[in-house]
Amino acid sequence: MIYEANVDEIDFSIKGDARGYLVPFEDGVNMPFAPKRFYYLYGTDTEIQRGFHAHKELKQLLIATSGSVRIQCEWNGLKKKFLLDSPTKGLLLEGMVWHVMDKFSPDCILSVLASDIYNEADYVRNYDDFKKYEAEYLNSF
Ligand code: T46
To answer: What is the rounded average pLDDT for all residues in the chain?
Structure first.
């Protein structure tokens, strides 16, 4: 089974006036998918690493709405680290991207908009399985 992968850093369009700032997300305007789920991670200790999985089909937009967190990604034979440290930017993870979140600041709230409801069957939690799926994808060209 071939699963596509894509990673993209996105700078949001900010609405603001004398009262403060606002960042809207609208399907068909600036959202790359229509979200079906929202969740957030908070209270994660600085020393903790989370994630260690990829998703087969799920698309997610990760935003540090408070504080900062590092996201280490691996996809399509590439490895890259991203720092989410502002509510004005996000990280789009589409499909088969192995990701690990760490270096959570004490005030970090990592908010996630997801393209589908929670489904454990969509997770690839074994790294060797991830590499097999990735190799299948890379050999398909
Ligand atoms: C991801 C990263 C960024 C639910 O019951 N419903 C949910 O919507 C989610 C996301 C999780 N759960 C349960 C499953 C586990 O028993 O919450 C527990 C913790 O989930 P997990 O160990 O997968 O958490 P993280 O921080 O490793 O990963 C989470 C998301 O699960 C994952 O999709 O991409 O954040």
So the answer is: 97
